């Protein structure tokens, strides 16, 4: 039997590449994962945890003898630099859009000699997004949606989240901030600006902790918001929407569309 081509011992520093490799049937190549990994659930049982998000156990990673480490964004640049100096091959993705997520999936597939499977996964994901867009086009109204990624300071949704809100049938209240790849560029310094934009629907996804609708509704002046008056404050778990991978394009966007559709039907 010939040896598998492509990277054979992979460490994934974030969840989305882990989920992608499982979906491609290449999970046997994963030798280490992020401790924040939730999807797929079996990864937590099967794979050693070697990193957080901005920190990692370099000694544990090196002990696994990876031939490839996959990371995400400049926030993992220090980890990447340490591994590169130790002679490890590192690829750091930086996808911030739906198109970027799909490109990441195809590239991961190429890295593990699974380009055909990655192409089929890409096609499946695109088909699912198209179905949601078709359904969204039938809605009688589009809600103004405020997506809150963090509560102190207030941070609005990143690029792919804003895109998915639009695709699912809503209008992102802070679409102009979504283009910022850096969370600092999406800080809403004046909470009164949310009041002025009067969202019909508030969706929270506070990474690492439970979204608290009662705290949001109690903010000064927010009782006047249409979303608060109609009790339309909902949570989507960060693992379903804030990881720039397959989860956002499946469970994440479906949850967005369900919440938007319920609002639109009630408001009709």
TrEMBL record:
Gene3D superfamilies: Nitrogenase molybdenum iron protein domain (3.40.50.1980). It comes from the Bacteria. Residues 9-264 form the Fe/B12 periplasmic-binding domain. Signal peptide: none annotated. InterPro entries: ABC_transptr_periplasmic_BD (IPR002491), Vitamin_B12-ABC_binding (IPR051030). PANTHER family: BLL4160 PROTEIN, VITAMIN B12-BINDING PROTEIN. This is Cobalamin-binding protein.
């Amino acid at each position: 039997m010939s040896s598998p081509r492509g990277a054979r011992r992979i460490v994934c520093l974030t969840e989305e590449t882990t989920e992608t490799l499982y979906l491609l049937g290449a999970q046997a190549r994963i030798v280490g994962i992020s401790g924040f990994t939730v999807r797929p659930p079996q990864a937590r049982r099967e794979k050693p945890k070697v990193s957080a998000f901005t920190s990692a156990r370099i000694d544990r990673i090196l002990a696994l003898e990876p031939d490839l480490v996959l990371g995400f964004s400049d926030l993992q640049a220090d980890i990447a630099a340490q591994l590169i100096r130790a002679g490890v091959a590192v690829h750091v993705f930086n996808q911030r859009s739906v198109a970027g997520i799909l490109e990441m999936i195809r590239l991961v597939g190429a890295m593990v000699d699974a380009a055909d499977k990655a192409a089929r996964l890409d096609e499946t994901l695109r088909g699912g997004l198209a179905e949601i867009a078709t359904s969204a086009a039938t809605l009688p109204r589009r809600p103004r949606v405020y997506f809150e990624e963090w509560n102190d300071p207030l941070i609005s949704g990143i690029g792919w989240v804003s895109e998915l809100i639009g695709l699912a049938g809503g209008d992102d209240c802070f679409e102009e901030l979504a283009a910022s790849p850096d969370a600092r560029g999406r800080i809403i310094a004046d909470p009164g600006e949310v009041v002025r934009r009067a969202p019909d629907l508030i969706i929270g996804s506070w990474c690492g902790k439970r979204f608290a609708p009662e705290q949001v509704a109690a903010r000064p002046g927010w009782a006047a918001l249409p979303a608060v008056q109609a009790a339309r404050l909902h949570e989507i778990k960060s693992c379903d929407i804030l990881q720039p991978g397959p989860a956002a394009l499946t469970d994440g966007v479906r949850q967005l569309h369900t919440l938007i559709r319920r609002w639109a039907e009630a408001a009709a």
